[in-house]
Design a protein that fits this description.
The protein has 544 residues and is an alpha/beta fold. It is 52% helix and 9% strand. It binds arginine (ARG). A motif ('HIGH' region) lies at residues 117-127.
Length: 544
């Protein structure tokens, strides 16, 4: 379904020859949309802008959609959509299974790397953000007609397993009774011993060699540690209500068998060089090289991410690859993206994007992760929010707080503020949805029938319908620029417009066609709120 805005844009562009950069009008008296296209054309033509505007207004073919166009101020063109056109555009959303969201003309296969916690460590506040943001991307990219391939790049390989396995053997630990918290405690005990006990450090190193060589006893413990961790991760995912499942796990160990070949390939083609005993790739514009293999012959995070990109292009047939991590990993990703391009592993037509997010701060403005004794685990944050409200509301609060400001910014985890039912919060949007539902149920109980939006005389009705008609383009925008706060802002504006509408336009107390049309407007608003919240990963309960 083509959005009204893009339809108007196309028609104006046909007359003007350039993109009109249509914007929503800033005040109701300016109509619904405004363009400064005449001002931009006037300059090179050396003509007065109002004259250019008058010319354009003559030629723009919009009589079927708009009231007569108006010229304002220095030469702006104001567009006011006919109420019946607006009514139809909003009504169409109700019947459309995609709620007005355009389906990609060329659907892409999108690899989405998110969550990605580490084995034998509980999920941290940072993992809360990547999990929530990635879940939202997953939903939005799917809703726009693409195929999303989530990849949970868990840290299930590396040198830390040497000490973990050695410590478990030393302690004759009962692995069948281990859980994730227990695995993390084991990690801490092993780590503490590493610096004080040289013999242990040596044995840990040998254990890494045994793991790499495929020693069965070693592998069995390694597998068990992963199993236990997965159980813990899944508990967190269940609690968060996100889409990730075990089928999405593609951890670092998956790429381990590919690393040697990647190194050989890059070395033989002269892309990688030996430097001080390590195999590295220098990339223009970067201070330090990417390390493929260190001086001891070990493989690390960089080369794994190079191999992963190759795999995602060749095996998963990705058209677009998106990574969601802490903003502090930006440099790592820029470097490994550049290496994979240089190697030709990621062809020109495939994009690689890193979405970095800011830190979660406590109410005192300090990062959670560095504070002693306070919640730094994801589970503790969920508990903190649930002290104030029920679980669905707590989740709405957390997810909305996370997604409603620009991702790059740090955000303050303030359970009191974010669970409030007024203001720009998740629970406020849930209430707006429940309120629309309540009116519809009451109408149903009173046997009042309604079908579609037919009357839009009041400015509050028009404003609401106009916002509704924009829903599809907002979602398509988020799918492309990966900025979910634009959806959050849109939903907040919609809920606000809905409450102005209730104030100014009685629904159940009006009569006849006006009442039926207003009920349809409520139903459309309810549907768009529910769909939008769902795309943020937030439930929209019918009652609260
Ligand atoms: N395991 C890493 C961490 O916890 C995140 C991995 C992100 N994905 C990737 N392909 N490197 O920080």
């Amino acid at each position: 379904m083509q959005s009204l805005a893009s339809l108007l844009s196309a028609r104006v562009e046909a007359a003007a020859g350039i993109d009109p950069e249509m914007r929503p009008a800033t005040k109701p008296q300016f109509g619904h949309f405004q363009t400064n296209v005449a001002l931009r054309l006037a300059k090179p033509q050396g003509r007065p802008p109002r004259e250019v505007a008058a010319d354009l207004v003559e030629r723009i073919d919009l009589a079927d959609l708009c009231e007569p166009l108006e010229i304002a101020g220095p030469g702006f063109i104001n567009l006011r959509i006919k109420p019946e056109v607006l009514a139809r555009a909003a009504s169409d959303l109700l019947a459309d299974p995609h709620t007005g969201i355009d389906q990609a003309a060329q659907p892409q296969r999108i690899v989405l790397d998110y969550s990605s916690p580490n084995v034998a460590k509980q999920m941290h506040v940072g993992h809360l953000r990547t999990t929530i943001i990635g879940d939202c991307f997953n939903r939005v990219l799917t809703a726009t007609g693409n195929t999303v391939i989530p990849q949970n790049h868990i840290g299930d390989w590396g040198r830390q397993f040497g000490m973990l396995i050695e410590q478990a053997l030393d302690e004759a630990l009962d692995l069948s009774a281990l859980d994730l918290a227990g695995a993390e405690a084991l990690y801490k005990r092993a780590n503490a011993r590493l610096s004080s006990d040289e013999g242990f450090a040596d044995r840990a190193r040998e254990r890494v060699v045994a793991l790499q060589a495929g020693d069965e006893e070693t592998l069995a413990i390694w597998r068990r540690l992963i199993e236990v961790s997965k159980v813990g991760f899944n508990e967190a995912y269940d609690r968060l209500g996100v889409l990730l499942t075990d089928a999405d796990i593609a951890g670092e160990s998956l790429y381990n068998p590919m690393l040697e070949a990647v190194c050989d390939d890059l070395e033989s083609r002269g892309i990688a060089k030996m430097d001080d005993g390590a195999l590295v790739v220098f990339v223009d514009g970067f201070d330090a090289p990417a390390i493929l293999r260190n001086r001891h012959g070990g493989y690390g995070y960089d080369v794994t991410d190079v191999a992963a990109q190759k795999y995602r292009v060749e095996q998963l047939h990705a058209d677009r690859i998106i990574y969601v991590t802490d903003a502090r990993q930006r440099h790592h990703f820029e470097l490994v993206f550049a290496v994979a391009r240089k190697a030709g592993y990621v062809p020109e037509g495939v994009s690689t994007e890193h979405v970095g997010y800011g830190m979660v701060l406590g109410a005192d403005g300090k990062p959670f992760s560095t504070r002693e004794g306070t919640a730094a685990y994801l589970i503790d944050l969920l508990d903190a929010a649930e002290e104030h409200v029920t679980r669905p509301v707590a989740l709405a609060a957390i997810k909305y707080a996370d997604l409603s400001s620009q991702l790059q910014k740090d955000y303050v985890f303030d359970p009191v503020r974010m669970t409030a039912t007024t203001g720009d919060t998740g629970p406020y949007l849930q209430y707006a949805h429940a309120r629309a539902n309540q009116i519809l149920r009451r109408a149903e109980a009173e046997g009042i029938a309604w079908e579609s939006i037919t009357v839009l005389t009041e400015p509050a009705e028009q404003n609401l319908a106009l916002l509704l008609s924009r829903f599809g383009e907002v979602i398509v925008g988020v799918a492309s620029d990966l900025q979910p706060h634009k959806l959050a802002t849109y939903l907040f504006d919609l809920a606000t417009a809905m409450s102005v509408f209730y104030e100014q336009c009685p629904v159940l107390k009006s009569e006849g066609e006006v009442r039926a049309s207003r009920l349809a407007l409520c139903a459309t608003t309810k549907k768009v709120l529910a769909t939008g919240l769902n795309l943020l990963g937030i439930e929209a309960p019918d009652q609260m």
